[in-house]
Amino acid sequence: MASNTPPQDAELVFIRAVVSKTGARLADVEKEISGLRRRLQQLEEERASLSKYQAQNNAVFSPLRRMPPEVLAEIFSWTLPSLFEATNRPKFDTKHSPWVLTHISSRWRAVALSTPSLW
Fold it and tell me: From which domain of life does this come (predicted)?
């Protein structure tokens, strides 16, 4: 193998057997890699699903859920446009406060709608 001398007949038989076994092992390894890639994809999908589920459950512990409506209303009032901004914007621009606050959650909607100073 390390020289350019042609192999003898006995060496050729041995080398052919080695090449054949190596090819078969290479095919087995490729098949195993393919299976592992499929398994990795399944595990990554499961991880993403579990991560999303965990985030949804962790949301229960959010301090915003325990914030009194009066505090939320005060925070909401700070999101109102300034007088200058308000005069240069259409009255029913739903992309800005206070309209956008009503699309966050049912609780925020209730607080925003029950806060006359926002409107």
Answer: Eukaryota
Paired tokens of 16 = 């052919």
Name the residue among 109, 63, 31 with its Cα closest to residue 39.
Answer: 31
Q: How far apart are CA 33 and CA 92, in angstroms?
A: 58
CA 64 to each of CA 7, 59, 73, 100, 117: distance values in angstroms, whole numbers, following the listed order: 79, 9, 12, 17, 21
Question: Which pTM value belongs to this model?
Answer: 0.52
Gap between the Cα atoms of 1 and 108, Å rounded: 77
Distant-in-sequence, close-in-space partners of 52: CB < 8 Å, separation ≥ 6: none
| Residue ranges of the chain with per-residue pLDDT less than 50 | none
Q: Tokens 């060496």 belong to which residue?
A: 11
> Would you list the domain boundaries of the chain?
9-61, 64-118
